[in-house]
Amino acid sequence: VKCRGQISLCAPCAVLVPLIKGKSIREAMREKGVFLPYVNAALKYQPPAVLAASGATAFYYGALSIGSPPQSFMVLFDTGSANLWVDSVYCNDKACNTHKKFDPKRSSTYTSSYGRFSMWYGAGDMDGIYGYDTVTLGSIVVPQQEVGLSVTEPGDNFVVAKFDGILGLAYPSDAGDQRPLMDTMMQEGLIQYNCVAFYLSRSDRAGSEVSFGEVDYSKFRGQLTWTPVTRQKWWQISVQSFKINNQPSSWCSQGCETMVDTGNPAIFMPNSVHQYTMNLLKVQPTQDGYMVDCSQINSLPTLTFTIGGVDFPVPPSAYVETTYRGGSPSCSVALYPTQPSAAHDLPLWILGDVFLQEYYSVFDRTYNRVGFAPAV
């Protein structure tokens, strides 16, 4: 199926990767009695001078192989970053030792590079070196792809992560000196249609998937609504309005610049909007997060985003997360504030997995647009 919605027999050029839903770093550490501070999730994209451990990274991860013979890893497929990296034997930090490590000496196709890099995410940071090797994604084989290999991963945040690395799917302008894997596949003609699409199931069971070069019509209802990318660095779009319980507001009347981020579990909004929304929900921040009475979920308002002239409602059943400690339920609101940054022109709105679990999403590099449709 083409990104334009026309049917094509393109099985050799389309790859579907099953995804596993895992707990966020925040949730996993909360269950261990460690409470991460609630800070700006957009710090994922900022340098260390303003970095803090927000833990706001969601986990829908799948398989990818590197080397000859292939060494398999579970990676986070992230539209909010653009680099590919995995843990390596060069790293002996605790975070690396709890995951699979790539060993260049075991690969006959590996070539070294003198390049070094640093990555800063809301959920942790790392340093590494670049190398070149064959990357296998489903039936797609990409020779001599530049890959980041971790050397240091300080702290404990990545220790509890269930993935061994991150596959960034944002634009090359966000990748520094590395050419993103998606761009290599496009330039080498390894996928017929330059799109990647996500189906993120709310269920902990199997069913989530990311597909390269195709749109899976069995995963959504109706037609895709397309909206243009407004900045080709992240997958940034303009939201035309934001409503609470279908009540119009002045927010986004001039358009709200918004990042669509599969590597983020929540919805982020400007601090002023967040404060108003929390007051309306009668929610106060605690050590555990923005907590609500689990018995009152159905009485909470629906949030609606207008994109491409179409309303996309997000019910409370989507933005309230339920966790269990000692058999007792605990409910928190997955809505967080962002703060403006003078040094970085970042979107103050982020649509993460809370939104993307409700809507099938297509990221189209040919026409630089994002498509949404109600997920099945």
Automatic annotation (TrEMBL):
<dbReference type="InterPro" id="IPR012848">
    <property type="entry name" value="Aspartic_peptidase_N"/>
</dbReference>
<comment type="similarity">
    <text>Belongs to the peptidase A1 family.</text>
</comment>
<dbReference type="GO" id="GO:0006508">
    <property type="term" value="P:proteolysis"/>
</dbReference>
<dbReference type="InterPro" id="IPR033121">
    <property type="entry name" value="PEPTIDASE_A1"/>
</dbReference>
<keyword id="KW-0378">Hydrolase</keyword>
<dbReference type="GO" id="GO:0004190">
    <property type="term" value="F:aspartic-type endopeptidase activity"/>
</dbReference>
<feature type="active site">
    <location>
        <position position="78"/>
    </location>
</feature>
<dbReference type="InterPro" id="IPR021109">
    <property type="entry name" value="Peptidase_aspartic_dom_sf"/>
</dbReference>
<feature type="active site">
    <location>
        <position position="261"/>
    </location>
</feature>
<feature type="disulfide bond">
    <location>
        <begin position="91"/>
        <end position="96"/>
    </location>
</feature>
<feature type="domain" description="Peptidase A1">
    <location>
        <begin position="60"/>
        <end position="373"/>
    </location>
</feature>
<dbReference type="Pfam" id="PF00026">
    <property type="entry name" value="Asp"/>
</dbReference>
<dbReference type="Pfam" id="PF07966">
    <property type="entry name" value="A1_Propeptide"/>
</dbReference>
<keyword id="KW-0645">Protease</keyword>
<dbReference type="InterPro" id="IPR001461">
    <property type="entry name" value="Aspartic_peptidase_A1"/>
</dbReference>
<keyword id="KW-1015">Disulfide bond</keyword>
<protein>
    <recommendedName>
        <fullName>Peptidase A1 domain-containing protein</fullName>
    </recommendedName>
</protein>
<keyword id="KW-0064">Aspartyl protease</keyword>
<dbReference type="InterPro" id="IPR001969">
    <property type="entry name" value="Aspartic_peptidase_AS"/>
</dbReference>
